[in-house]
Write a structure and sequence with these properties.
Blueprint: E1 6-9, H1 11-24, H2 29-45, H3 55-63, E2 74-79, E3 82-86, H4 92-110, E4 112-120, H5 126-134, E5 139-144, E6 165-169, E7 177-181, H6 188-196, E8 206-207, H7 217-222, E9 224-225, H8 231-247, E10 269-276, H9 284-299, H10 315-327, E11 329-332, H11 333-345, H12 349-359
Parallel strand pairs: 3-4
Antiparallel strand pairs: 1-11, 2-3, 4-10, 5-6, 5-10, 6-7, 8-9
Helix pairs in contact: 1-2, 2-4, 2-10, 3-11, 4-5, 11-12
The chain binds nicotinamide-adenine-dinucleotide.
Length: 361
């Protein structure tokens, strides 16, 4: 859906360009490094709609003072294992990593930890944060609300966001299980990528502004994306929006500032980070054996006709990440040119030249 002309770029180069760009925009070294790690990790895993492509819009909002580093982040209220934090309009990845770490610390203390974060901004791929919990042997569940771009079931106009949900489970003998999904049929970022390279989208992903099914990516962006599985994806998106909005003291989806269209106020996104220490109540050896055994049995199932081996969520992305760390990451020339233009606009001429020269590789 988003081929365009692609260039294979070493992962270190993409991380370096991204980190340097956000450092020059005023983020601390730590925050710039986290933002680069979250975004380029998405490219490594094949979630390019939530990776390097987002650098120009994140940069624009930082430049305009609508987003920034994590230094203004604070605890607003806490009770036992539940904590409400305010992100102080910190750039999503920079604050989300800290919120997850706080939830993980609560889970170590209480067996479970919930951090509800308000005042946040777009945080990219939800799975990154859930996987961070799993990398410490904990179960992570992460969700976010998002500005209205999706028509809820039965409606012809936008009202909810494509509110993502990620669930990560640590496995002893395998890469972690990571279910990481938008509540739309596909993430809207994939439609933006198709629009960026002038490609059509499959029917069934979106409707145009008149409510007609469309394969035109530009018309889809002007209209509404559709929830997965009708009332189920729609209901899940609403539930996520309701939980993030009230527990995080954030705006509801239909009240949220759009990252791309509203430059008069910061976004006030809500994000929830729920971390569970499964071994606080279960025997670790037995639990790990059972999880791994289930994954083994799943992988041994006979594949459906014309399909390869049965995989579990996160498996494909983990394999892709190892390959791309070794061989390089495919990036569309349109994304590299957009990065170069954004850097040129801010006077980061060396970064602009580096971006352009990659297109010529
Ligand atoms: N920050 C935001 O506001 C926001 C909003 C929407 C989506 N997103 C992000 O967009 C990204 C993409 O979402 P999406 O819904 O388009 O993803 P998708 O449709 O590609 O589905 C991804 C999930 O399906 C699993 N999967 C894919 N192929 C599989 C297979 N063959 N076997 C088993 N499992 C398989 C993956 O492991 C992953 O868990 C996610 O990272 C999500 O967090 C973010």
């Amino acid at each position: 859906m988003i081929a365009g002309r692609e260039v294979c770029v070493p992962v270190g180069v993409l991380v370096g360009l991204t980190e340097t760009c956000f450092g020059r925009l005023g983020l601390s070294r730590e925050d710039a490094s986290v933002v680069a790690d979250v975004l380029i990790d998405a490219n490594l895993r094949g979630i390019s709609s939530h990776g390097f492509q987002r650098v120009p819009i994140y940069a624009k909002r930082v430049r305009q003072g609508l987003a920034g580093g994590s230094e203004e982040m604070s605890v607003v209220a806490s009770f036992g294992a539940v904590c409400h934090m305010d992100a102080g309009k910190g750039l999503g990845p920079a604050v989300a990593v800290k919120a997850l770490d706080k939830a993980a610390a609560l889970a170590r203390e209480y067996g479970v930890g919930l951090v509800a974060l308000g005042g946040s901004t777009h945080f990219g791929p939800a799975g990154y944060y859930a996987r961070r919990a799993a990398s410490r042997g904990l179960v992570g569940m992460v969700m976010s609300n998002a500005p209205k771009t999706m028509a809820p079931y039965g409606a012809l106009e936008r009202f909810v966001g494509t509110n993502p949900l990620a669930i990560a489970i640590p496995l002893a003998r395998h890469e972690p299980f990571v279910l990481d999904i938008a509540t739309s049929v596909v993430a809207r970022g994939k439609i933006s990528q198709a629009a960026q390279v002038g490609e059509p989208i499959p029917l069934g992903l979106a409707i145009d502004s008149e409510g007609r099914p469309t394969t035109d990516a530009v018309a889809a962006l002007a209209g509404s994306v559709l929830p997965f599985a009708g009332p189920k994806g729609s209901g899940l998106a609403l539930a996520i929006g309701m939980l993030c909005g009230v527990l995080g003291c954030a705006d509801f989806d239909d009240e949220l500032a759009s990252m791309y269209e509203d430059f008069d106020k910061p976004q006030n996104i809500g994000q929830l980070f729920l971390v569970v220490d499964p071994w606080s109540v279960q025997d670790r050896d037995r639990g790990e054996r059972r999880w791994d055994g289930l994954i083994d049995r799943l992988g041994a199932l006979a594949p459906a006709e014309g399909r390869g081996p049965v995989q579990y969520p996160g498996q494909l992305e983990a394999a892709r990440a190892s390959e791309r760390a070794r061989d390089g990451v495919p990036v569309s020339s349109a994304e590299l040119m957009a990065f170069a233009e954004c850097c040129a606009e801010y006077g980061f001429d060396d970064l602009a030249t580096a971006g352009r020269s990659l297109v010529g590789m």
